Amino acid sequence: MMNSVYHRNRNFESAVFFDRDGTITRLVGYVTKPCQLEIIPCAAESLVRLAQAGFRCTMVTNQSAVGSGMITVDVLREIHAELQRLLEAGGARPDAIYDCPVAPASGDETVIEHPDRKPGPGMLLKAAADFQIDLSRSWMVGDRLSDVLAGVNAGCRSIRVRTGYQYPDPMPQVVVIS
Prior knowledge:
Layout lengths: L14 E4 L24 H10 L3 E7 L1 H4 L5 H17 L6 E5 L21 H10 L7 E4 L2 H10 L2 E4 L18
Parallel strand pairs: 1-2, 1-4, 2-3, 4-5
């Protein structure tokens, strides 16, 4: 089950997909209440600049707190409404927020256990269909290996930021040959 929380209707061909926790918001573990959200400095400004440059800005986020029974879908909607409010206070308006509530069966973030759960490309493919996005001209930005792989699996270029999840040394490496 994926929920598109917020949409704006613009006709762009390229997009930047963002993970939520550790990329747009500070990584605090499971977010179970809207008051736990804190936007990472410069995140809203980055969304504004990318939109001004012609990119559609969309969030794709694994939310296993729903699948594991920690929160309900209604609470997740409240959390995402607060996220939108915080971003809009910084001048940013994401085009959509997609979430996958499926809880992982294993701890291996390189395995696709469900097509919508990153590293699966499902949320990105759904956004591409909804907004006529050219994935080959788009980017995925996230703090985890699963985020990078979701972008690669969808046919995007991917960037891993170090604002959230910290891997032990040595960090897992991904080599993509195209």
